[in-house]
Every structure is written in C-alpha cells, then in structure tokens.
Amino acid sequence: MGGGRRSAAPRIRTEGSEHVVTTALETEPEAPEPVPDEDEPAPRAVRAVALAVLRLLGALVVPIAAFFGLWLTFDWMRDADVNRFVLVAVAIAVGVGGVFLLYWAMNRTVDHLPERFREGVRPYVFVGPALVILGVFLVYPVINTIVVSFGDSQGEGFVGLENYEFVFTDESMLRAIRNTFGWVVVVPAVATSIGLAFATLADRLRRGEAVAKSLIFLPMAISFVGAAVTWRLIYSFRPEGFGTNIGLLNGIKMGLGMTPTPWLQERPWNNLLLMVIMIWMQTGFAMVVLSAAIKSIPDEIIEAARIDGASEMQVFWRITVPSIAPTIAVVVTYMVINAMKVFDIVFVIGSPETNQTEVIAERMIYWFIRNHDGRSGAIAVILFVLVIPIMIWNIRRFREQEATR
Amino acid sequence: MTTAIPVEESLPTELEGAPTSEGAGDVRKGGWTPRIVITIVAAIWMVPTVGVLITSFRPEDLVETTGWWTVFGHLFDTSQWTLENYRSALDTGGFENAFLNSLAVTVPSTVIPITIAAFAAYAFSWMEFRGRHVMFAAVVGLLVVPLQMALIPILRLYTSGAEVAGLRIFPDLDLNGTFLGIWLAHTAFGLPLAVYLLRNYIGSLPSSIIESAKIDGADHFTIFWRLVVPLSVPALAAFAIFQFLWVWNDLLVARIFLGGTSDVQVLTIALSNLVGSRGESWHLLTAAAFISMVLPLIVFFTLQRYFVRGLTAGAVKG
User: Fold this and answer.
1) Assigned domain for A155 exists
2) What interhelical angle do B179-203 and A44-80 show, nearest 10?
3) Chain B residue with minimal CA distance to A250?
4) Which terminal residue of chain A has fewer beta carbons within 10 Å of its beta carbon, N or C?
C-alpha cells in the first residue's frame, strides 16, 4: 500500500494548465521511495519522461478504447438495422459496463507497473478520461468557435470583424438583442416574484402545501417544446372562415362578446406572451428553492417581530426578504442565464421574423441552418461573453454557500 | 441576521411541507388569504396542462368545432372521449419510433457521463497528485461555457475530422446523425456539472471510512467501487435525474447532431416538426405533446425527492 505516502498537500500551480497532456509533460517526477531491490535507479530525466508517457497513456486509453468499442459496435448495428430496444440495451451494456470494465482493466494494468510508477500513474487513469473528453468537446470547440467567428460563411479564411459588424447592424439581429434583453429582465423578475409570494403564502397553509407546490413545480418536468405546444393552444387564433376559435384566450374574449385576437402576431406584445411560457415553467423552481429558504428562518425571529407589533407585510419585507436575499440572488441569476439562452420556445412557436420575436440563441441556429458558420460563430461568441460574468458570479455564489454548510 | 442558505443543503426538503412546524402555537399558519390565493394560482397553473390533456382525448371533429373547456358541461358523455388521437400519433405520426429514439439517446447520455465523472470525482477527492486543484478548477471553469459555443466545431469534427498543420489529429468518422455522436456530445456537456457535484459529495464523505478501508488493505479501485459508489447514491441519483430530463427535453443538441430525418428523430424534434407541418391539427399535436411528457411526469411523481434535488443542483449548469 503506497497510497498515502505523499503527504504534502499539492500546491496550486500558477501555470493553469488545462489539458492533461500539458500537465503530464510539465509535472516533475515525484521523488520516489527508494526501492531496495532495484539494482540501479534510472537517471531522473528518463524516469520523468517514462512517468509522463505512462500518465498520458493512462489518460488516453480509456476514452479512446471506449470510443472505438462503441463505434465498432454501433457501426455494425447501423448496417444490421437492428431494433431500437436492442440498440438501447447494447448501448447500456457497452456504454456503462464497457466503460467501467475499461477503468478496471486499466487499474489492473497499473498494478503491473514497476512500483515506483504505480501511484504516480493511477490518478491519471481515474481523472484522465474526463479531462480528455472535456478537452476535445469543450475546450477545443470554444477556441475553434472564436476562430470561426472571424471567418467567412464556411468558417474559413479571415474576414476580420465582418461577422461582428453584421451582428450589430443587421435589423433582425438588433431586434434579437433587444428582445433577449426583455426576456432577461421580465422572466426572472416575474417568476421570482410569483415564486416568492407563493412560497410565503404556501408556508402558512395548514395542509395541502405539498400538493399546491407540486402543481406549480410540475411544468419544470416538461420540455420547452411541449410547453410551447401547450401554450400555442391557449393563444390559438383562427381568422373568420377558417374554423372555430378553440384557443382559451379567444374563447374568453368571445364569451365576453369581443372579437378574437391573433395573439401571436400582435407586435410587440407577442414577445410578452412567449415570456409567459417560460415564467409558467420556471416559477416552480423559484418557489421550491425559496420555500426551503423561508422554512429555515427561525420561528423565534418572526414571533418576536409579531410581539413587537409588526404587520404581516412588515414581517415579509423586513424579515423574510432580507433573510433569504442570498437565495433570491441565486434564483435570479439562474433564470437570467436561462432567459439569455432561450431558444426552443421562440423556435417552436414559429415565424420569429414575421412576428419579430427573434432572440439571440435563435438567431444563432437560424444562421447555422443557413450554413453561415461565421455569423453563427460570432453570435455564439456574443452569447458566451454575455453569459460569462453571470456564470462566474453564480458559481462563486454556489461555492460560497456550499462552504458554509 | 442575513442567513446564507446553502442551496445543496436545503434541497432535500423537496416538496413536502415541514411536518415539525405543524401545531397549535405556530405563528405562521392560518388565515383565509393564503388559502384563496394559493388555490387560484395553482388552478391557473394547471389550466394549460389540463387543456392539452383534455384535447388529446377528444375526437377530431369536436376538437375543431368546440373549445376543450366545453367538456365540463357534460363530463360523462362517453361519446366525446377517444383514444384515436394517440393511435394515429404513435403509428402514422411516427411518435412510437421517436419515443424509442428518445430512449436510445437519453439513457446512454445519462449513464456514460455519470460513470466517467464518478471516477474523476473520486480521484479529485481521495487521491493525492500534483495539479489536482488546478485540474478541478479548470473543470469547474468549464461550467461557464454555454453549449452553443461548442456546437459548430463538434459538428465539424464529426463531418470532417480535424487537422493541425496538415496532421490528422481527429479522424473523419462521419458521426453526424448517429446516436454515438449525440451520446458523446451530451456526455461532454454534462461532465463539468457531474464532476463538480459528485466531487462535492464524494469529498464530503467522512475520511475515517476511507482511511480505515485503506488500513484494511483495500486499494483505490475497491474503495471506489465497494464504498464510495454505494454511499454516493443520493448524489448520483440527483444528477442522473437532472441529466435524464435535460437530455430528454433537449431540442437544440438533437436538432444539430441528429437532425430531423424520421429514422433517428427524437420526440422533441418530431413534435416541433409536427408544429411546423400540421400546426392546426390540435387533436394530433396535443396527443403528441402528451406522449413527450409522459416519461418526465412519471419521473416527477415517483422520484420527486431526487427530482427537486437534481434540478436545483443543476441550476449551475451553463
């Protein structure tokens, strides 16, 4: 058992190496324990290189072997045109069992290494595959997207800032930015307010709290596409001569003796109607998280305030809200990020250009489908730049909260 | 007085009320206002779902001529109910195939990242090696990357591989439109969050357990498999549910990597195509929409506890 022999806590190095490749190459060899039955210790440099190579191999073997295992299996199955149940079953067997077996096999292989390498290589077998996958599928793409955003429609050549110029001059794109701004302001504000009010009131129910909360939370489970279809039915409009109006909103209007409205074409209010869909979906999230926070406010504080003669409203504004302010912040940031990246709702409801309901992420897919990688890339970069500060803040917040537990 | 509420910690409170705060001397309970407001809001929240559900069980001619709310006038008139919409959505609409495709995409896209992330999280927590803090910080840093950033380059990798200075570093595998391609993409997109959450959980396991297992002669692999994985079931389940729903409900990634051809299209794609092609066939649309919601709703009702935990923890995903 040589597991815990290096007791010194690893220092955080400042190079900030992300790839396992570079890390492995840069890592100095650990001072190995002198092994008694070794006739002549190899020179340090040779050993360092050997260790680096072994670590690299340890990191690469699992993902590459797993990939080709899956690839060969499914290439064969694609040709054989097998039933999807079989496909799923094999996918689970190969994907989980196979990946796990690969880790196991690599771990056994490490056991057969010379002892001085063993515990230096093993962590890379565990961590390596994750880092390799992240490197190929996240780190490389981010860099590549930035490069593509300076290229032409094929993402090649170099056109300077042309795509960015397009992003900030195209009429439709400017509208998308404006609309996204609307989403980012309206959705978090309304959803959090309703969620907070609901959580506060539900906390005071004697019974039925769980059921009431389930009903509000339920839309979280369904897809944006499903939600969009659901609300399209509510907003449904048929002009005269094209059948009965079966949408709920127009049903109510007609019941009141008014003429039906083509809701989704009413610019600019149709944007608000789309935002309602997201509010409907995400209020439950705000409610559940805020409710948990409200319940953690000690009863004594509220009781003391009541005895001092505070009204319900005063208790809410002076005690409840300040007490849960950090949680409100977390909920709002989460929703801001979601609203910024909204795509599905606008896409599924349809005709964003004629209805002028474009949003940034939807524009990105729009240009992607029209094979203009440069523009699409530039829009993705804009989105990235907008999201970064909020995400960093969000993660820090989350970590702080975790640290306090 | 400003109490920081640890989000993770407050998750398991799920949707249950707090049973301890029930009682006569409770300062918070009672009053008619909460009851009335809650009932009204809950009712409003139910309307859209109920509308879809009712419409999906009505025959086409009735759907076309009367609003779904008219059924409440004669709820028990059986002639107004039918299963025909579901039959046509599943068979002719191709939603049976789409349902199976969704399963084929979602299940591996959920379990593969969990396996890989669990090994990494264990190493980050309980193995000593240089640079592990930097590596973990880099993984957490990747949480900020919106997946929109990664779509085009991954698609290019899939269709034409990658070359650096004339040297082929990623082979041209033609993965576009295959299940394997989308599994890999979802695996990568889910990994940062999975590593982050699992590392927080696994790292907080009592070190005395791990140490005593080591003293008993267990190696890292045995500790991981026999001890850490069974102890981490709550965290694994929470992430599994989050990832499952995320992949199941995803439209964007499926749209890019699988496309809309009928043999591989998933439910969300099939549904959005149906809106495009038959946007006014409400009897079909509602049945199809409900088919796409069935599995998430089952997960919601049976695993509510983990469900809330997973979704709340997933709030940090970029």
Assistant:
1) no
2) 130
3) B67
4) N
pTM of the model: 0.81
Residue A6 domain-assigned? no
The helix (H) or strand (E) run that includes residue A206 is none
Of A17, A393, A63, A134, nearest in space to B150 by CA: A134
- CA B31/CA B20 separation, integer angstroms: 19
Query: The tokens of A386 are what?
Result: 């907008």
Give the closest residue to B147 by CA, choosing from B117, B185, B110: B185
> Per-residue pLDDT tens for B125-138?
888 888 888 888 88
Domains of chain B in start order, with CATH, are 34-69 (no CATH), 95-316 (1.10.3720.10)
A224-235 and A248-255 helices, crossing angle to 10°:
20
Q: pLDDT tens digits, residue range A183-207?
A: 999 999 999 999 999 988 888 877 7
Domain boundary among A148, A178, A201: A148
Residue A353 to chain B, least CA–CA distance (Å): 15
Identity of the residue in B16, B289, B297 whose CB atom sits nearest the CB atom of A230: B289
> Distance from CA of residue A245 to its chain's centroid?
38
Q: Which residue of B1, B3, B100, B124 is the best one to mutate when testing the A interface, meaning the one whose CB has the most A CBs within 10 A?
A: B3
The closest alpha carbon to A74, from B70, B180, B299, B216, belongs to B180
Residues whose CB falls within 8 Å of the CB of residue B1, separated by 6 or more in sequence, listed in order: A301, A322, A323
| Inter-residue contact A251 to A259 (CB < 8 Å) | no
Q: Are residues A227 and A173 in the same domain?
A: yes
* Cα–Cα distance list, A288 to A40, A200, B1 (Å): 65, 11, 22
- Listed residue (B192, B194, B228, B195) closest to B213, CA to CA: B228
Q: Identify whether the C-beta of residue A155 lies closer than 8 Å to the C-beta of residue B152.
A: yes
Q: How far apart are alpha carbons A71 and B153 in whole angstroms?
A: 20
Q: Which residues of B touch A368 (CB under 8 A)?
A: 151-152, 256
- Do A135 and A199 have their domain in common? no
Smallest CA–CA distance, residue A339 to chain B, in Å, is 12
DSSP state of B167: E
- Claim to verify: residue A207 and residue A134 sit in the same structural domain: no
**Crossing angle (nearest 10°) for helices B179-203 and B132-141:** 120
Distance CA B8, CA A335 (A): 18
As a whole number, mean pLDDT of residues B284-307 equals 85
* Mean pLDDT score, A115-119: 73
Number of independent structural domains in chain A? 2
Could you tell me which of A314, A334, A312 has the C-alpha nearest to residue A322?
A314
Dist CA A231 CA A199 (whole Å) = 24
Contact (CB<8Å) A324/B5:
yes
3-class secondary-structure state, position B3: coil
Structure tokens at A166: 């397009």
Q: Are residue A134 and residue A186 in the same domain, yes or no?
A: no
Question: How is chain B split among helix, strand and coil, in percent rounded to 5?
Answer: 75, 0, 25
Full domain range(s) for residue A82: 20-32+41-148
What is the number of other CB atoms lying within 10 angstroms of the CB of residue B211?
14
In one letter, which amino acid is B150? Answer: A
At A189, which helix (H) or strand (E)? Answer: helix A171-202
